[in-house]
Automatic annotation (TrEMBL):
One of its GO terms (molecular function) is DNA binding. PANTHER family: PROPHAGE INTEGRASE (PTHR30629), PROPHAGE INTEGRASE INTS-RELATED (PTHR30629:SF2). Keywords: DNA integration, DNA recombination, DNA-binding. Gene3D superfamilies: 1.10.150.130, Intergrase catalytic core. This is Phage integrase family protein. Transmembrane segments: none annotated. Belongs to the 'phage' integrase family. PROSITE patterns: TYR_RECOMBINASE. It comes from the Bacteria. Residues 208-400 form the Tyr recombinase domain. GO terms for biological process: DNA integration; DNA recombination. Pfam families: Phage_int_M, Phage_integrase.
Length: 432
């Protein structure tokens, strides 16, 4: 025992080590019944425990206790570190949302469909997996997700979902070392293996779509769309017409075009191409026929004061999903009107592009010029590195063949072959 100047008494355990007296503090001695500290019996019990521990450690008890204290502090720090890492470690839901955010920041048009699919087929039906750490997702988990879709008869889309999940895990494996992604979402995924890679894609579920509109269908669409959907904005019809007039330019490219992208004097328009595995933005310059220019003139009273020609509200460009919905409404209206006749297969916005490709072939436009007009990559070195905007004369010449055939189709004339010389004379006033 040792009395302090303040009057309190401290209890110590004393032992000898290497001929030195050593003290280990037990605590404050309780001097009264209601006082704070240890009673004499408790002090003796603590001292006995320390004596036993000294015999067990076989060395300097004080040094041993200090080492134990250091070890406990290290364990506590490691525990805190692991808890911090666990809090930062992203779940499958975090991974999906971060991947979708990355797609949106890159301006990927597919982000909406990816978000919809991951939520509908993964996050909502599998809440336990959604809250699990992304690194803990197994091959079996992925199999269960896709099997559920196949059992429900969702076949082709199951392949799409597999691709989305695979891409999300690839993103997660790279995002941990990407400073921009860390700044954006602050999560780490620590994914070592992509669990989707071991799950095969079902090739038998893929159907190569071959639908294109025949000449009669093109004419009916061109002149009958508004009659079938009288309560819809005429912008939808004009967009469909412009797609046909510009050899099937993709709607997602056209709706993003601003009025400033159209040059009526040069008879050209410019758009950004983002298709392809690289996702690299490429500037495309395409010629405009008189037919396309006339469509723009029809748009001016409707959207001339807006930023985008193909715009209904003035606040944002037309949604391509809305165009798809209008086409389905048109198909349904045609089915109801032609109830006694054999029903035709419905079509989609993508089928308009395939229709234009078919017209290009019918008008005998060579393959290279077809690829040039439709901004397709043919795999050649020239296709990968050549600036297509530098080949406007070629594009104009090929477009004349196409437009001549389209004109015959719209007039209901025999349109199997095109008299190019006749077309040139009819369009001699156009700028070459």
């Amino acid at each position: 025992m040792e009395r302090r100047a303040s009057g309190s008494i401290e209890a110590y355990y004393r032992y000898t080590y290497e001929k030195r007296d050593c003290l280990i503090k037990i605590g404050k001695y309780k001097q009264s019944k209601n006082g704070a500290g240890y009673s004499l019996a408790e002090c003796r019990s603590k001292a006995a425990e320390l004596a036993t521990l000294r015999r067990e450690c076989g060395g300097d008890l004080k040094a041993y206790l200090e080492e134990q204290a250091i070890a406990r502090r290290q364990q506590e720090r490691e525990k805190q570190r692991q808890e911090t890492l666990a809090a930062q470690q992203g779940t499958l839901s975090d991974l999906c949302n971060s991947y979708i955010g990355s797609l949106k920041r890159k301006g990927k048009k597919s982000s909406y469909q990816v978000e919809k699919s991951l939520k509908l087929y993964v996050l909502t039906p599998f809440p336990e997996l959604a809250s699990a750490k992304a690194r803990d997702i197994t091959v079996e988990d992925v199999v269960n997700i896709i099997r559920r879709m196949i059992e429900a008869g969702i076949t082709t889309t199951s392949n799409r979902l597999r691709s989305y999940l695979h891409a999300a895990f690839v993103y997660g494996m790279k995002a941990d070392n990407d400073p921009l992604e860390q700044v954006t979402h602050g999560k780490r995924f620590y994914i070592q293996v992509n669990p989707v890679a071991a799950v095969p894609r079902q090739a038998s579920f893929e159907r190569v779509r071959e639908r294109f509109l025949g000449h009669d269908e093109i004419r009916e669409l061109w002149f009958g769309f508004s009659d079938a959907l009288p309560n819809r904005s005429p912008v939808y019809l004009l967009l469909l017409r412009f797609m046909l007039a510009t050899v099937g330019t993709r709607p997602e490219q056209l709706v993003q075009c601003r009025w400033s992208d159209f040059n009526e004097d040069l008879r050209t328009f410019t758009f950004i191409e983002r298709k392809g595995k690289s996702g690299r933005e490429r500037r495309r310059v395409m010629p405009l026929t008189q037919r396309a220019l006339d469509i723009l003139q029809e748009l001016k009273p409707i959207s001339g004061d807006f930023e985008w020609p193909f715009c209904v509200t003035g606040k944002a460009p037309l949604r391509t999903s809305s165009l798809g919905n209008r086409i389905q409404e048109y198909c349904i209206a045609k089915e109801e009107a032609d109830e006694a006749e054999e029903k035709r297969e419905r079509f989609t916005p993508k089928d308009i592009r395939r229709t234009a490709t078919n017209l290009l072939i019918e008008s005998r436009v060579p393959r290279e010029q077809r690829f040039l007009l439709q901004s397709r990559e043919d795999g050649s070195i020239e296709s990968k590195h050549y600036d297509h905007s530098d080949r406007l004369p070629e594009k104009r010449e090929a477009l004349k063949r196409y437009d001549a055939l389209l004109g015959k189709v719209l007039k209901g004339e025999e349109a199997k072959l095109v008299d190019l010389e006749e077309y040139r004379q009819a369009t001699s006033n156009e700028q070459a």
